[in-house]
Protein backbone atom coordinates (compact mmCIF):
# COMPACT_ATOMS: atom_id res chain seq x y z
CA UNK A 1 0.00 0.00 0.00
CA UNK A 2 1.34 3.45 -0.84
CA UNK A 3 1.90 6.13 1.76
CA UNK A 4 -0.90 8.22 0.26
CA UNK A 5 -3.33 5.31 0.46
CA UNK A 6 -2.37 4.72 4.09
CA UNK A 7 -2.95 8.38 4.90
CA UNK A 8 -6.34 8.51 3.13
CA UNK A 9 -7.56 5.32 4.81
CA UNK A 10 -6.29 6.66 8.10
CA UNK A 11 -8.22 9.90 7.73
CA UNK A 12 -11.36 7.97 6.78
CA UNK A 13 -11.07 5.66 9.79
CA UNK A 14 -10.51 8.62 12.09
CA UNK A 15 -13.58 10.39 10.73
CA UNK A 16 -15.82 7.34 11.00
CA UNK A 17 -14.47 6.63 14.46
CA UNK A 18 -15.27 10.17 15.59
CA UNK A 19 -18.81 9.87 14.23
CA UNK A 20 -19.32 6.56 16.03
CA UNK A 21 -18.06 8.10 19.26
CA UNK A 22 -20.42 11.03 18.87
CA UNK A 23 -23.44 8.86 18.15
CA UNK A 24 -22.52 6.55 21.00
CA UNK A 25 -22.21 9.50 23.34
CA UNK A 26 -25.57 10.99 22.34
CA UNK A 27 -27.38 7.65 22.57
CA UNK A 28 -25.55 6.45 25.67
CA UNK A 29 -24.18 3.46 23.77
CA UNK A 30 -20.82 2.76 25.41
CA UNK A 31 -20.05 -0.12 23.03
CA UNK A 32 -20.40 2.19 20.02
CA UNK A 33 -18.22 4.79 21.74
CA UNK A 34 -15.52 2.16 22.33
CA UNK A 35 -15.73 0.95 18.73
CA UNK A 36 -15.40 4.52 17.55
CA UNK A 37 -12.34 5.14 19.71
CA UNK A 38 -10.74 1.92 18.44
CA UNK A 39 -11.42 2.93 14.84
CA UNK A 40 -10.03 6.41 15.46
CA UNK A 41 -6.83 4.93 16.88
CA UNK A 42 -6.58 2.57 13.90
CA UNK A 43 -6.81 5.60 11.62
CA UNK A 44 -4.09 7.41 13.52
CA UNK A 45 -1.84 4.36 13.17
CA UNK A 46 -2.53 4.19 9.43
CA UNK A 47 -1.63 7.86 9.02
CA UNK A 48 1.58 7.31 10.96
CA UNK A 49 2.43 4.35 8.72
CA UNK A 50 2.01 6.61 5.69
CA UNK A 51 4.25 9.26 7.25
CA UNK A 52 6.93 6.66 8.02
CA UNK A 53 6.80 5.36 4.45
CA UNK A 54 7.27 8.92 3.18
CA UNK A 55 10.24 9.40 5.49
CA UNK A 56 11.88 6.16 4.41
CA UNK A 57 11.38 6.99 0.73
CA UNK A 58 12.81 10.46 1.24
CA UNK A 59 15.85 9.09 3.05
CA UNK A 60 16.39 6.46 0.36
CA UNK A 61 16.12 9.09 -2.37
CA UNK A 62 18.68 11.27 -0.56
CA UNK A 63 21.13 8.38 -0.25
CA UNK A 64 20.56 7.39 -3.87
CA UNK A 65 21.23 10.92 -5.13
CA UNK A 66 24.55 11.02 -3.26
CA UNK A 67 25.81 7.79 -4.82
Question: Brief overview, please?
Answer:
With 67 residues, the chain is an all-alpha fold. It is built from two helices and no strands. Helices cover 93% and strands 0% of the residues.
Number of helices: 2
- Globally, the shape reads rod-shaped
What structural class results from the helix and strand content? Answer: mainly alpha
Q: How would you sum up the major sheet?
A: none
Overall pLDDT metric: 95
Beta percentage is under 5%
The beta-strand count equals: 0
| Cα radius of gyration in angstroms | 17 Å
Q: Number of folding domains? A: 1
- Name the helix and strand elements from N-terminus to C-terminus, one letter apiece: HH
Runs in which pLDDT lies below 50 for 5 or more consecutive residues are: none
